[in-house]
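In the current project phase, we have settled on a layout for protein records. A sample record is reproduced below.
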Amino acid sequence: VEVVEVARGAGWLIRTADRDGGAHAGVRARFLVDASGGGAPLAEALELEDATARIRTRSRTIYTHVEGVPRWEEVYSGLGGSTLGYPFPADDAALHHVTPEGWWWFLRFDHGITSVGAVLSDLEPRGSPEAEWAALLERYPSISAHLEGARPVRPFIRTSRLQRLQLPVAGADWCRLPTAAAFVDPLMSPGNAFTLFGIERLVEALEAWGDDAEVARALERYASLTLREVELLDAMIDGCYAGFDAFPLAVAFSMYYFAGATFSEVRRERGEGGPGDGFLNAHDARFHALVLRAWEDARRLTRRGRRPSPEELAAFEARVRDDIAPYNLAGLCDPEKRNLYPYV
């Protein structure tokens, strides 16, 4: 359905309609949870502040769905490479191709269709979406080989800047789930886990229903930690973007994300986690500060297109290894693994 009206008075009134225009009866509620993603009907109704300028990451995308995409091990073999030693088939996960100006995703569905998109840090479009897509494929032969013979089954979509942030995140009688309030970038596929952390915190507020003071305190904690998570995720992703033209830097910086993710998972498995935990260990002040300082250095090392020296890269890699040591439960930063981590 489409939300056609969000009105606030003695509670909330939400009216919806089918995509063909058929109206539905209104729904009334005392508390409203916005899980609309980028649609933002609640943001429009409340005239929330557009705080997107706070987000460091800057990217847009061109994407489509195609059929007939060969598996990566076949393509890579034809290019002279080998996937022997991979911890799992590359096509069984979100497969990324990293380029100096961004990255590509390949998401293979079970019914033979593959979602393919190019995420670009340059926000200025170059010609039509089709022309820009063709120019990118001409620039990168391995990606072109991966799509050789593939047939688009839907028109190309080209977005404007992907990032968004609207404030505040919650109020006395409403709340926005994390990915409704903010979006950073799909690079690490963080959306589902980020949302689930938010839902767990929101349940803490709903369990206190009837105690207005406690609900207010829980919603304040919810909003504060959500913004802390956005800041951390933004730094983690933008730090990787800083290294895309100096790939060892991007690889090293990505270890902060994987350390935060796996450490959080293990805490939950051990029963040590709870609603006070932040996504990617964002509640940990030490870890949060380490990532932000590393982001500043990554941007400094690559300012104005500069490429770090081998000595600078080695020092940065060593710094990351030391920073994540207390959180490194997956054997990250081990050169013998050649960036292949069979984490289960």
